[in-house]
Amino acid sequence: MESIEDKIFYSVLVFMWIVYVWESYISSRQRHLAKTVTEVPDSLKDVLDQDTFTKARLYSLDKSNFGFWSGLYSQCESTVILLLGGIPFAWNLAGKWLGRLGYDADYEILQSLTFMVITMIFSTVTSLALEPIQHLCTGRKTWIQ
Asked: Domain span at residue 66?
């Protein structure tokens, strides 16, 4: 029999995936629009020329495609972290680090701050690899010519 904690855990996980699928659906509609509208709309012809519109449209498509793959990676990463117990691991790691500095379990606020630093460092390191790829993928074909 599943405990209430397990039910909540899996409900949150399912909700995360539902939100991801919904956002991906909305983005796919925008991608479709960017693919199909190739001429400057009449309402923008006075302020935008065809060349700039084409570059902006292609940039939008590249950014959208990269966003899809980046979002999928991020969603899978979050799922793996949750399923493998990454959050309790980081919490316990923060407690161990503070224990080495002479603080015990009574210092929950300090442990919370240390936990946040650990998770932010992890998040920064994992997202750093995507930054240069994003700039190469989105700027290479449209603006750098």
From this structure: 4-139
